[in-house]
Automatic annotation (TrEMBL):
<keyword id="KW-0812">Transmembrane</keyword>
<keyword id="KW-1133">Transmembrane helix</keyword>
<feature type="transmembrane region" description="Helical">
    <location>
        <begin position="94"/>
        <end position="115"/>
    </location>
</feature>
<protein>
    <submittedName>
        <fullName>DUF1232 domain-containing protein</fullName>
    </submittedName>
</protein>
<dbReference type="Pfam" id="PF06803">
    <property type="entry name" value="DUF1232"/>
</dbReference>
<feature type="domain" description="DUF1232">
    <location>
        <begin position="28"/>
        <end position="63"/>
    </location>
</feature>
<dbReference type="InterPro" id="IPR010652">
    <property type="entry name" value="DUF1232"/>
</dbReference>
<keyword id="KW-0472">Membrane</keyword>
């Protein structure tokens, strides 16, 4: 599980670094924008109020779009961006666990607040 999270994080960071490169195709930029929009907008395939499945679609769609966008990058751009991503992960090894725990904590707080609002 941790290896998979690190791979998704590596691809997301590599894609972020690659977006600034002039050789990055428009399709990769649009896929990355789509992943960001899907993660941030309240419109989902399955509503977040649906237990487990509501968050599961986010956990599948967003990394899938990011991975697809990373695969549309030209090889030299992807390798350069991936090198920068790995260098950042080596310098900041606590970054991935902090982001994952922060996301889980935020989701838990939002769920608790929603539960309180609906219960009372």
């Amino acid at each position: 599980m941790i290896k998979r999270i690190r791979a998704v994080w590596r691809d997301a960071l590599a894609l972020l670094f690659a977006l600034g490169d002039r050789q990055t195709p428009t399709s990769a930029r649009l896929l990355a924008l789509g992943a960001l929009a899907y993660a941030l907008l309240p419109l989902d395939l399955l509503p977040d109020l649906t237990p487990v499945l509501g968050l599961a679609d986010d956990a599948l769609v967003v990394p899938g779009l990011l991975a697809l966008a990373a695969r549309t990058l030209p090889a030299p751009v992807y390798h350069a961006a991936q090198g920068r991503s790995l260098a950042l992960q080596r310098r900041l090894p606590w970054l991935v666990p902090a982001v994952v725990l922060g996301a889980l904590g935020t989701a838990g707080l939002l769920g608790w607040a929603l539960w309180q609002a609906l219960a009372g």
